[in-house]
């Protein structure tokens, strides 16, 4: 299924309800056998056959539909499987997620008057992908950190001259030329990063403190990468060993960044029914104008130029920007249902 269709099905599952316990949730963990879960569902269906009364018919039908869906899938997909089955207004509905938005870590089999949505909200697809950028006066190194470890992608040599001890006008000219060469080199590093890194979950920037500060303040990283900067770190060498050092120092902050996104998105959905959020470009624009935004959530699907504008506006108002990847739990729902722009508010805006 395409992501838009998956988002619509997730929305339907979350909104489903029944007058009695007739909605069946089946989750199969990524590392568990689908066959053993099928046996549990078939056993529950067989027991339900002995229940009396028309009230039990929808539950029996839901069990049967869930078992049928499990048989159709055949074996546990790489990230697990979630199946929802129920009867609404006399019609049987089944939702099968063989491509859940997050890895299913725990098997569940329940029935109730609502579906259990936690299997679609937790987990994740493994280690975040982190863009590694080490920049120094003498060169730069670009690499990637993911579940397989650190991979060096590109190195760049610099022709920025070292410092001179000469005095007078010649020293001033040398200093100006050196600064110009440094800006040109930093720009080339930013261009290379934009070319090499497609869509990382986070960015880590390393080098000596002075160089990293100058690179960052010069805004040389493309906006889509700058908005995902997890932090800056003291690293001594712009080579593969420097990439390893940067990855080691950045891991904890990247994990925290991922947790921050998940927490902000979960809070957005939790506060949604009480009207304590804003969503959609026009409504969020009004909230920003009134200084009401505490945290601004912007999906990665929003163009980089727009994200940069949002970042400046919310920071000017003392708020914080949170970039939401589409593949984080709830990310698809946020993109499809809320235009990829939402805000946690300090106070309501009428």
What does this structure look like?
The protein has 350 residues and is α+β, with helices and mostly antiparallel strands. It has three domains: 3-121, eRF1 domain 1 (Translation, Eukaryotic Peptide Chain Release Factor Subunit 1, Chain A, 2-Layer Sandwich); 130-255, 2-Layer Sandwich (Nucleotidyltransferase, domain 5), CATH 3.30.420.60; 275-345, 2-Layer Sandwich (60s Ribosomal Protein L30, Chain: A), CATH 3.30.1330.30. The chain contains eleven helices and 13 strands. The chain has helices at 3-15, 34-48, 57-73, 118-121, 168-196, 209-217, 223-226, 240-271, 281-289, 304-316, 331-338, and strands spanning 23-28, 81-88, 91-97, 108-112, 130-136, 139-146, 149-157, 202-207, 229-234, 277-279, 293-299, 320-324, 341-345. The strands form three sheets. The protein has a five-stranded mixed sheet with strand order 7-6-5-8-9, with helices on both faces. Strands 3-2-1-4 form a four-stranded antiparallel sheet, sandwiched between helices. Strands 10-13-11-12 form a four-stranded mixed sheet, with helices on both faces. The longest helix has 32 residues, at 240-271. The protein is elongated and about 95 Å long. The relative contact order is 0.11. The model has no long low-confidence stretch (mean pLDDT 83).
What key phrases describe this protein's structure?
60s Ribosomal Protein L30, Chain: A, 23% strand, Translation, Eukaryotic Peptide Chain Release Factor Subunit 1, Chain A, alpha+beta, 3 domains, translation release factor activity, 350 residues, four-stranded antiparallel sheet, 44% helix
């Amino acid at each position: 299924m395409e992501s838009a269709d998956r988002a619509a099905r997730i929305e339907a599952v979350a909104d489903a309800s029944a007058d009695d316990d007739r909605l069946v949730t089946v989750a199969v963990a990524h590392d568990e056998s689908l066959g053993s879960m099928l046996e549990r569902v078939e056993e529950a269906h067989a027991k339900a056959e002995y229940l009396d009364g028309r009230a039990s018919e929808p539950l029996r039908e839901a069990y049967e539909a869930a078992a049928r869906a499990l048989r159709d899938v055949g074996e546990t997909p790489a990230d697990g499987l979630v199946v929802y089955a129920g009867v609404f207004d006399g019609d049987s509905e089944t939702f099968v997620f063989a491509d859940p938005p997050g890895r299913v870590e725990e098997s569940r089999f329940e029935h109730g008057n609502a579906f259990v949505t936690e299997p679609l909200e937790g987990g994740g697809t493994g280690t975040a992908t982190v863009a590694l950028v080490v920049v120094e006066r003498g060169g730069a190194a670009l690499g990637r950190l993911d579940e397989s470890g650190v991979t060096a992608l590109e190195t760049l040599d610099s022709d920025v001259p070292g410092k001179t001890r000469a005095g007078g006008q010649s020293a001033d000219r040398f200093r100006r030329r050196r600064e110009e060469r440094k800006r040109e080199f930093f720009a080339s590093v930013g261009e290379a990063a934009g070319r090499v890194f497609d869509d990382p979950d986070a960015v880590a920037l390393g080098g000596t403190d002075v160089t990293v500060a100058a690179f960052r303040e010069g805004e040389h990283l493309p906006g889509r990468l700058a908005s995902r900067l997890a932090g800056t770190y003291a690293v001594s060498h712009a080579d593969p060993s420097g990439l390893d050092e940067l990855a080691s120092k950045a891991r904890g902050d990247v994990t925290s960044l991922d947790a921050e996104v998940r927490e902000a998105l979960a809070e957005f959905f939790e506060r949604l029914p009480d009207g304590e959020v804003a969503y959609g470009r026009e409504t969020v624009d009004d909230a920003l104008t009134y200084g009401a935004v505490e945290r601004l959530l912007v999906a990665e699907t929003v163009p980089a130029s727009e994200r940069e504008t949002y970042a400046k506006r919310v920071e000017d108002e003392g708020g914080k920007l949170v970039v939401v990847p589409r593949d984080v739990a709830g990310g698809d729902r946020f993109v499809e249902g809320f235009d990829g722009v939402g805000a946690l508010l300090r106070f309501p805006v009428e």
